[in-house]
Amino acid sequence: MNFFDYRDGQLFCEGVSVDAIADEAGTPLYIYSKAHLLERYNAIADAFKDVDTTICFSVKSCSSLGILKVLKDAGSSFDVVSGGELFRVIKAGGDASKVVYAGVGKTDKEIRYALEQGILMFNVESHAELETIDRIAGEMGKVAPVALRLNPDVDPKTHMHTTTGKLENKFGLDFQHAGEIVDNLGKTPNILLRGIHLHIGSPVNSVEPYGEAIDKALGFIEEHKDGCASVEYLNTGGGFGLFYSKENVPAFAEYAKVITERAKKAGKKLIIEPGRSIVGNAGIMLATVQYVKFNGLKNFVITDSGMNDLIRPALYDSYHHIWPTRTSTPALPGASVEGVSTVKSDVVGPICESGDFFAKDRLLPDVSKGERLAIFSAGAYGFTMSSTYNTRPRAAEVLVDGEEWKIIRKREQWEDLVALESAE
Ligand code: LLP
């Protein structure tokens, strides 16, 4: 079901016109659909129900407390990559004992905090990290549960910046070093090896790389049977694809088939860490057209939102469908715009660099000052990657639930931006 849809030429999120929200909340604005979030969460849970699966929503993809709370209430656990993300999960009422914690550079302070909170396990990315966790756990009189994050050297066929399971990437342990660790667990007495973790990239729009990576991981467990005797969990990470405009994205059931049949065969419980596939299409960003400028070569639609609000096009050249919120020719992501009267335009922001764009040479209806544009599929890695570059306050975030909506993050003000600074 489409929770963002046009009715009589106006874009709605569930039962509310997005313009009605923006009239009050202003732009740039992130708007999320609670029903969409829940539908996607429940769809994943359903697809993986054949195996004991812990779904750890990947907090980095969309970390506002209001979003985490919805998912927590639906039964989600969480995947974090910093002490700050763990703090957020706890603030949102999440259960620390269901949190997995990855990341190549965990600090002593973060490790200590996570041990105090009693997380489910660390996803360990190096020998040096394992020794650090062992030492800190020893000082605290605790045993630290860990999974080893393996780098399976598999190509997920995605953007190079979001490929994580190849040996040229900084993530995880190569099999030789991981093998040395599991064969010498006696040297780290404050460590309990509970799992094997993988995360090969994002988005992975095919299922084969998962099969290949998991087969390698299961081969590793088999080869190091004794050291891996305490391994109960196989964590296959996140990375499931998202429909932005034209990609062929496997259904959750197709990913689940490849993953669960292997977990079953190996007799392991599963952990998965989806982010984008749950929240990506649950959110849009609204921008208001400030100026339109034609320079003889190009038409520029200049908005009040910039790369500081949504950096994905600048960073990954990623495609986001963009369309006016009020229009006589509605078009949702993937819709053909053939036959629609359009102007080829670059949609850009006000920031002082040429990387500040949302779309290049895009066919858009003719728009003018004051009209609003919806930038679709912005729920994942949208707000969480936003910044205050050019001293621009970060956008507000709104959660829609049926006919109702509420602000889950207020718009920052100029005062907020200097609140921690001093000119003395
Ligand atoms: N688990 C780990 C260890 C991860 O590093 C990630 C994402 C995930 C799970 C969640 O992956 P997802 O299900 O969301 O694909 N900023 C980039 C994406 C970076 C992904 C980083 N890691 C983007 O905007 O495309």
Report what the structure shows.
By secondary structure, this protein is of the alpha/beta class. It folds into 2 domains: 4-32 and 280-417, Lyase, Ornithine Decarboxylase, Chain A, domain 1 (Beta Barrel); 34-276, TIM Barrel (Alpha-Beta Barrel). The protein is 28% helix and 24% strand. It is built from 12 helices and 20 strands. The chain has helices at 18-25, 34-47, 65-73, 83-91, 108-117, 127-140, 175-183, 208-223, 252-266, 276-279, 312-316, 414-418, and strands spanning 4-7, 10-13, 16-17, 29-33, 53-58, 77-80, 99-101, 121-124, 144-149, 191-197, 233-235, 269-272, 283-294, 299-303, 322-324, 343-348, 357-364, 372-375, 396-401, 404-409. Strands 4, 13, 14, 15, 16, 17, 18, 19 and 20 form a 9-stranded mixed β-sheet that branches. An 8-stranded parallel β-barrel has the order 5-6-7-8-9-10-11-12. Strands 1-2-3 form a 3-stranded antiparallel β-sheet. The radius of gyration is 23 Å and the shape is globular. The chain starts with a strand and ends in a 6-residue tail after the last helix. The relative contact order is 0.16. Residues 58, 61, 79, 102, 162, 199, 202-203, 237-240, 273-277, 312, 316, 380-381 line the site of ligand LLP. Ligand LLP binds at residues 58, 61, 79, 102, 162, 199, 202-203, 237-240, 273-277, 312, 316, 380-381.
Please name the defining characteristics of this protein.
424 residues; alpha/beta; Lyase, Ornithine Decarboxylase, Chain A, domain 1; TIM Barrel; 2 domains; nine-stranded mixed β-sheet; eight-stranded parallel beta barrel; 20 strands; 28% helix; globular; binds ligand LLP
